[in-house]
Amino acid sequence: MRIGLHLSSTGPLDAFPREAAAARHLDSAWTNQQPGGWDPLALLPHVDGPPELGTAVVPTYPRHPVVMATEALTVQALTGGRLTLGIGPSHEHAITGWWGIPYTKPASHTREYLEVLRPLLRGDHVKYSGEFFTVDHQLAVTAPPPPVLIAALGPRMLGIARDLADGTIGVWLRPDTVESYLVPRLGENQRVAVVVMVALTGDPDATRERIARDFAIVGELPAYRAVLDRGGLRGPADTVVAGDEAQVLRELRRFRDAGVTDLIISPLTARERLLEVALEAR
């Protein structure tokens, strides 16, 4: 199991490289499109150290797949081939509620998106006519095509990940759900990346209470609510790994044993020591 660090895209821009320095001894560093934050793909070329740089994730609806492919290949060239592109349809709450874009058939939209995106990344001339995209285009720029992961939690999306992507990126998951639900729906040798909030603390209940309060909306978003229900969880706080070093290490190893290939740590406390503990879980 590879260990990565999740980096916020909302802090001061000049602080991002310093924050990323914590990932220099890890396998990867990841960032995502956060509300009001910086462009995650534009941030990654400023990360030194880890052999892999990823997005977890970039929403698809606001970016045409030609634009996504162009930006991804640019980042791939600038980072020496270290990019893993994580994308996903996001949620109606954001896509329509915030940006006014119709959130229509997200699974079908994602399938068409990948059918256009993957050939473009390979340098192919794409002629495509579908429900959502009509494309006749080839990119002039070239770079090694990055692996593509998608945010897949529902059965249809996991099937699309199996058919058209290199794996999935999940969040708000426990090891039992990964083992019994996610892994069986993916193909052999596909990646299972999971973002998990982790805290070294003597008061795990207080940590979970804070996450329950700060991330209450998570339980109201249909895709997240469905995967929480599949795991028998009340809300996002139930997915937090919190406790002393022995407890945290034991819980992180459960993700490894469940089939997670890439554990992306979102630290809540004591980042440096927490990452040292996480590396022991590999």
UniProtKB/TrEMBL annotation:
Domain of life from the UniProt record: Bacteria
Oxidoreductase keyword on record: yes
UniProt keyword Oxidoreductase, yes or no: yes
Domain called Luciferase-like: residue spans: 52-251
UniProt entry keywords in alphabetical sequence: Oxidoreductase
Pfam families (UniProt xref): Bac_luciferase
Alphabetized SUPFAM superfamilies for the sequence: Bacterial luciferase-like
Protein name according to UniProt: F420-dependent oxidoreductase-like protein
Organism: Amycolatopsis thermophila
Taxonomic path: Bacteria, Bacillati, Actinomycetota, Actinomycetes, Pseudonocardiales
